[in-house]
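Holo model, 4'-deoxy-4'-aminopyridoxal-5'-phosphate. Inputs:
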Amino acid sequence: MSENIKFLDSDVPDFSEDQAARLLRELYGIEGDCARLYSERDQNFRVRAADGDGYVLKIANSDEDPAVLDLQHQALAHVETRDPELPVPRVIRTRDGALSATVDDSGGKGHIVRLLSYMPGIDLASVALTPKVLRDLGATIARLGKALRSFFHPAGDHVLLWDLKRLPEMRHNCDAIEDAGQRRKIEAVIDHFVQADLPRLGDLRWQIIHNDANGSNVLVAEDDHERIAGIIDYGDMIHAPLIFDVAIAAAGLAHHAEDPVSAICHIAAGFDCVTPLEADEVDLIYDLVIARAASEILICTWRIANPTGPTDDLVDFVAASWPVFETLLAVGRDTVRARLRSALKFPPYCPAPGEVDRAEADAVLDDMLMRRRDVLGRKLYLFYDRPLHILRGEGVWLYDATGRAYLDAYNNVPHVGHSHPHVLRAISRQYAALCTSTRYVYGAIIDYAERLAATMPGGPRVCVFVNSGSEATDIAWRMAKIHSGNRGAIIIEKAYHGGTDAIDDFSPVDRPADQLAAHIRAIVTPDTYRGEFRGDDAAMRYAADADRAIAELDAAGHGVGAVMIDSSFVNHGIIDAPEGYLTAVVNKVRAAGGVFIADEVQSGFGRMGSHMWGCQVHGVEAEILALGKPIGNGLALGAIITTPEILASFTEKTGYFSTFGGNPVACAAGSAVLDIIEDEQLLANAVETGEYLRRALRDLAQRQPLIGDVRGAGMIAGVELVRDRATQEPAKAETKRVINAMKEKGVLVGREGYLGNVLKIRPPMVFSPANADFLIAALDEAITAI
Ligand code: PMP
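Output:
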């Protein structure tokens, strides 16, 4: 037998029912009948008082540590103050006002006596375990935990057999299990618990917990078997991880439930509604349930082998426990964890490297690809020859289904880094308080609009909120049309500005040049690497094409409502437009009565480094800015910043309203993104790291002739790959291979340009010089390898 923990209690008190009634009278001044109740180590009497009230008189084992008993009744008294509605027993004070008293038995041994109010109800173990009652159980345990949060007692750390943390100390008692196969199963669970779970417990939330909410310690109402009416028996309270209460309740009920896994999920979900669980806690539930089941079987089997009295109940209990234990073992950790995560709306578990092998992950991916194709269609494009199944993102890193880390040098939507905690908190806290529409007054949208408007110098600005970049460019165009009174627009050839019906006309990226909409004119791309004009006068020569477009639109009777340009020219292969080009084009359009719509979906929020907005990098202020992608760090949000006059023209004619646009959660996300851009000085980082990256790329180009040109501004770089620098033959197939090879080396980049031969490097703005070094090494190896 273990030295520290006792497997048996020898000295159970033996007071008669009459003696109990006398104690009741003397200590509490209550007249009543006392009837014995079962207890493992104390003596309990059900009291029916003469005045009709019910109580439980508890006479403790003389071995019981008074400090531990004090912990229990202090805890109950504390719970009463914190959550008076919680269905837990009240501690009745003695005539002297004490929470307990000490009485001697016939042998002169002292026993601590307490009186608790009686909780009417039916054992949960004896009723049908519906999802509703299991959820109510979870919620009630959570409330109890919440009420105990502020409770402290020095005896919380006392030594207790039923303390799951002490499971390792029981391992040598496994000899009591005769069947070698069964013994090994219990030993294996204990060994896993010691190696994998115990070390993780220290990171969880700890407090004093009930520690024994099993089916006979939980009562349901007599008139409603789906409502928890009492949690009794505080004899096992200890200081332990909060999640133990969920696991112990689940283990205690598993053999009464038809589907033990569903029961575990319902209890956890009920708990989660009151006290949100943390991912680490959820991921441990299975191991804790099975460890508790193992300890129950072990303790009871040992007691059957070392009896001090009748063992029939123990035999029945062990017989009922084995099948559930075996079922849980057979179902396995991964399945139960996945079911729990799904029930609690946690995303799928992201394994640590080595936990899942590639073949297993590949099989899952193949299955998902098929299901995806069936419900999303065959054409929904995926990156890479072998697509990536990504489970988690953090900062500049993405993690796949084997736990492998990839450096994200592609995604601009997670502008301030994947899953930035500040954005996460902003979104969840705002959602917890309110998420509604602009039909009500709330501060989040006003504060955010003020901050966005203040990014534009030179006069007041106003905002309109939408839900995507496409919607932003669409509304921007409607505004321009209405304000200018003209119906024609100018874009750069092969542009992309979004997917609405109107903006599809502005996005002829995959269309032959002669198939433009009648009111659209495309002007030549100001490409000084590959284009017609490459000298000092390139800006003016390229801009001159706007004269042609304006003349054509005028001649066709459309006039010029707007020119729409992405200042970072991402979709054009991240070209470096010559200095003065944008100013010249915009001036021509303004002279013709149109406005400049800066499509800042790619170039905004400091992407180009020196300025908040891409158009400002070119020295131009726009009448209308269309914002998207990075604006909410992944949350669907778009915005338009414009002048009060343009907004007035627009709203006069349209009465525009967007249900989701500018909702408080979206504004909270947007506002948090602005905080981080300022606090983490991301514009300065874009300038410094971006320059560092481009320098390193140019150095690499000295060694790798495939690199024809290196371009970009701030945290965006384009690397044009050519088969021959003199002929500039585009290395389209090689570009694809380089991108796939880089992925294999753990770096994600994309492909751009209508020739398909430009590497797009557009990482989250928190990208560091060390990340750039990692990328350069992977690119170098990839080019060498292909
Ligand atoms: N404008 C530009 C320049 C874009 O690159 C995109 C998206 N690629 C859009 C607009 C449309 O944004 P969304 O996909 O959010 O509708």
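The pocket of 4'-deoxy-4'-aminopyridoxal-5'-phosphate is lined by residues 468-470, 473, 496-499, 566, 599, 601-602, 628-629 (CB under 6 Å). DSSP finds 22 helices and 27 strands in the chain.
Archived with the compound record.
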